[in-house]
Amino acid sequence: MRLKRFEIVHDYLFKLYFEDGTFKEVDLEKLIKSKVSKEEIKTAHIDNDWGCLEFNGGRVDISPKTLYSY
User: Fold this and answer.
1) Which of 11, 25, 28, 63 has the greatest number of CB atoms lying within 10 Å of its CB?
2) What's the rounded Cα separation, in Å, for the pair 39 and 3?
């Protein structure tokens, strides 16, 4: 399961769209706050090879499987 696209709603709240058509709105604060500050949220991007959500140039990433089940 790969992450297809995402939208940042505000702070750590994301809308996530997966390749199977599933949509989820999730608050990732508890998952990433210790590694990604509010200011760094805007560094979010999708790794094209793995379909994971990355921050800070790939130093922090969340697998699509984790995002899907979160």
Assistant:
1) 28
2) 22
